[in-house]
Amino acid sequence: MSGHDSPVRFKDVGSVLKHFKGEHAENPVRFRCTLCVKEFKQKCSLDKHIAVHTTEKCYKCSTCGRSFALRGNLRTHQRIHQDKEEREIFNCQLCPWTCLTQSGVQRHVKTRHGNEKKTASYQCTLCDKALTRSTGVTLHMQANHPTNEMPIHSCEKCGYKSRMKFALTRHVQRVHDRVKRTECYFCGKKFFDFKDLVSHYPYFRKIRHVNLLGP
Which Pfam families does the UniProt entry name for this protein (predicted)? Predict the structure, then answer.
C-alpha cells in the first residue's frame, strides 16, 4: 500500500522519522507529507503534522484525562479548564463568534464565512478599514477605536494600560510572569512568541538532519 494513496500509521514519532530516512531520503518536495497527500507552507507545520500518523498520545490532561499526541494541543485544550476571567479570547471580525485560539478563529472564518460574498461594503468611520458585515465593523471599532466609556485596565506592576482585558493579561504573562506559550515539538524548548519558535527551527532541523543521516 502506497503512502501517497492512504495514510500510514506508526507506533511513535521515532518510527516515523526512521521511515522517512529509509524510504523518502531523496524526496525533492520539502514540505509535502510522504505518508498522505497533505502539503504545508512551512517545515515546522509538516513536523507537527507527522504526529497524526502515530497512535502514541503521551500528553495527558491532568484535569479530565484526555490524551494528545502533541504537547501544544494539550496546552490549548487545558484552556477550557481555566476560569473564564483568565481565558484569552479571540474574536471573529465577521460575527460575534469567539474562540480560545487564533487558529480556531481562522478555521471558523474559512468554514462559516468562506462562501460569503467578499465585498467589503461596511466602512469604519474612523479609519480606512472595510469589512463584509456591520457586526465586523462594530467589533473592529471596539478593539481599535474604543470610546471613553469603556473601562481601562491597568497593570499593577508598571504603567501599561489597555481597554481590552485579554491584552492586559497577555502583557502580565509575557512581561512580568515570563510565561512561555509556545514550545518546540522536538526538543521541548519554550519561547515567548511563535516567531521565536520559527527562528529556532532552522537551527534544530540542521542538528536533526545530521542525527538522522548518521556518521
Answer: zf-C2H2
